[in-house]
Amino acid sequence: MPGVPPASAKPGQLTAMISSTALDLPEHRAAVKEAVRRQDMIAEDNRRLAKALVRQGKAVEAQPYAQRAVVIYTSLGVLSDIAEAQATLAECEGGGAVE
Fold first, then answer.
1. pLDDT tens digits for 58-98?
2. Using N-to-C axis directions, what is the helix angle for 79-93 and 59-76, rounded to 10°?
3. Which of 77, 81, 49, 42 minimizes the C-alpha distance to 65?
4. How far apart are alpha carbons 42 and 48 in whole angstroms?
5. Which residue of 19, 20, 27, 74 lies most exposed, with the fewest beta carbons within 10 A?
6. What is the 3-state secondary structure (H, E, C) of the chain?
7. Is the pTM for the entire model greater than 0.85?
8. For residue range 15-51, what is the model confidence (pLDDT) as tens digits?
C-alpha cells in the first residue's frame, strides 16, 4: 500500500520498497532514489561532523560519527566515499594525526 510505512519503521525513518515485479517498479523508483540520496546525505553529515570534532581535538567523540559514515557508505557501495569515510575514521582512531 503506497504511503504506508512498514511496521518495523521507526518514527521519521524513510523507507522504500524495492518491488519484485516490473509493474510495481516504476511506482517505487522515486522513493528508492530519495531514500538512497538521503542516506548519502546522512553519511556525509556524519563524516563532516567527525572531521570537525577531530579538528577541535575531540577524536574520541568523533569516532562514532566516522564509524556510522563508513557503515552507511559501505551499504551504498560507492568506493570513493567508503575510502574517504575510512580515512576520516583513521583520523579519529589516530587522535587526529592523519591529514
1. 999 999 999 999 999 998 888 889 999 999 999 999 876 54
2. 160
3. 49
4. 10
5. 20
6. CCCCCCCCCCCCCCCCCCCCCCCCHHHHHHHHHHHHHHHHHHHHHHHHHHHHHHHCCCHHHHHHHHHHHHHHHHHHCCHHHHHHHHHHHHHHHCCCCCC
7. no
8. 665 555 544 667 777 777 777 788 889 999 999 999 9
